[in-house]
Amino acid sequence: MPTLNIITNVPGDRVTSSDVLKALSKAVAKSVGKPEQWVMVSLTTDKPMMYGGSEEPCAFGYLMSIGSIGGEKNKAISAAVCEVLSSTLKVPSNRVYIQFSDAKASDVGWDGSTFA
């Protein structure tokens, strides 16, 4: 149940959101190692943002998963997500931050209960 939220200052009229979402979903599933049926992604465009004193394209991502992340694996996940953001939104990888969160199954709700 990896969940990736991306916020960017890239104008929404420059992107086809469904294409970006599909590419991010596949990248997360592959790099995290969980079936895509459990992956959720969201994309927020047009957000006023500044990185390093510049309003050039940038992005912030938050990835939460129950296990399957951490340490060296986060580097591979970061590379996969940054590749999608670079190719679809034209956001350079050096203008992307990603926060990783390894959640306990009992702290994630699903289907009226939790995963624990």
Task: Produce the secondary structure layout.
Blueprint: E1 3-8, H1 17-32, E2 40-44, E3 59-65, H2 72-89, E4 96-102, E5 109-110, E6 113-114
Parallel strand pairs: 1-2, 3-4
Antiparallel strand pairs: 1-3, 5-6
Helix pairs in contact: 1-2
Keywords: Cytokine, Isomerase, Secreted
Protein name: L-dopachrome isomerase
Subcellular location: Secreted
What is the gist of this entry?
The chain is an alpha/beta fold.
Folded structure, characterized:
With 116 residues, the chain is an alpha/beta fold. It has one domain (2-107): 2-Layer Sandwich (Macrophage Migration Inhibitory Factor). It is built from two helices and six strands; from the N terminus they run βαββαβββ. It has a four-stranded mixed β-sheet with strand order 2-1-3-4, with helices on one face. β1, α1 (17-32) and β2 (40-44) form a beta-alpha-beta unit. α1 (17-32) runs antiparallel to α2. The model has no long low-confidence stretch (mean pLDDT 96).
